[in-house]
Write a structure and sequence with these properties.
This protein is α+β, with helices and mostly antiparallel strands and 410 residues long. The protein contains 14 helices and 15 strands.
Length: 410
Amino acid sequence: MAASPPAAHELRAREEQLRRILESQAFRNTEVLKRLVEFLGRKALSGSTADLKEYTVGVEAFGKPEGYDPRTDSSVRVQAGKLRAKLDEYYRTEGVSDPVIVELPKGQFALAFRAFHESPVPPPVPVARLPWIVAGVSLAIALIAVVWALRPARAVIARFGDPNVRALWAPFLDDARPAMVSLGSPLFAKVSGSFLRDPVLNSWDRLEESAALKTLETAMNGKAVAAWPYTGIGEAAGAFDLARLFVAWHKDLNLVLATSLSWDDIGENNLIFLGPPKYNLQTRDLPISQDFTIEHGHIVNLHPKAGEPANWSETWAPGAAAPLEGHALISRLPGLHGTGCIMILASTSTEGTRAAVEYVTRPDYVAQLTRALRGGGSAIPLYFQAVLRARFKSQTPIQVEQVTVHLLAK
């Protein structure tokens, strides 16, 4: 028995929504999928979905012969799967604020319609292709991913699907080159089962000769070796947020430990460096002129504009293990040989690195940054550096503000 057609006002709303989908950029140049939407839409609007089987769709929508056997020809199921993915893409981008949601439930060939405010059955959450290298980082991000999977999808889309966020990250999202995150790797010395970390000494040659390490070797009766077993909480949280951003825009994102990153990787990928130069040593050797650099505890202003200080420092409470206030640096630079793009999100502290990622992924912050970059124009300059100031509570950024922006020559 055929289902009853929807009420007149619902019918008009559904017709309009189908029109939006068919005319969208997401469905541009997808003639097969548009044909499927049109066919399933007609059936749904007329209430005649009871007879929608795989065979019926194959014959009536795709013109297959009456003798066609779905058991040996899976093309209809393949196109149905592509349609589900394309609808998901549409509602993550152009259709994020549409009043009617159109879905194709798994295992069915009848379109389902619901109002924007109605909660669907939670869909499976896509995962960016991230070949985690450090076990500790993998566990931390896996746990965060579980939390994210339980969050409302709309909240995720509202943050990462924002047009300003999309515009800021366009050089990475639109380029055919792969995108890669280099996760900053602090240097440790391992002696037996103990580790030593000196935040000032980030080269093994210097750390190996330090008095503190020699004292530890004597106490542990062992010889030290270089190790990179951990990353900061800001770098780990930042990598996860970037993964969510790229997932929202259907772009793969690879991750590599900074100690495993090769110069070939830098030349062949669009790179995002997470963490300061002492964690990402390759950034010290980039043949790119910059206005700001990071030294221990300071962001150094190499070319101060009128009224700008020569450097910015952290503020610590007496005896505190984490800063109360710090500064971060966002740098978008040309790739090697002028090909591709490099983004560096770094700070004088791991908490500050997290603040830098917050600033380039949260719509309200991104709106401030893109407004400053455009300077009254319409286009975002390709290369720039921005200094941020952040306040922290329990190692979490609670307020981030823009201090200055410098545009860089191409």
